[in-house]
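Q: Here's a chain of 78 amino acids. Please give me its 3D structure as tokens.
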Amino acid sequence: MSGAVTARVVSAAALTVDQLAALTDLLTKKLNKPVEILAETDPAVIGGLYIHADGLVVDYTVKKRLNDMRDQLKRSKA
């Protein structure tokens, strides 16, 4: 494995120690690099996770899903 990566993880509520450990293991395997989590909370995401690490961006937040649904409804009305 090469140098460590910092992963920015945003959630609506603080993640537990077990959740952070599981996420660290998952990202380490996915990126094939040691990962250090920089956890942030933002109630605006409503739920789910936003992850940005080493060029990988994963947005599984409820806010993103709601915005996508709104955009899809707008397009279907046009």
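Q: Can you summarize the key feature?
A: DSSP finds two helices and four strands in the chain.
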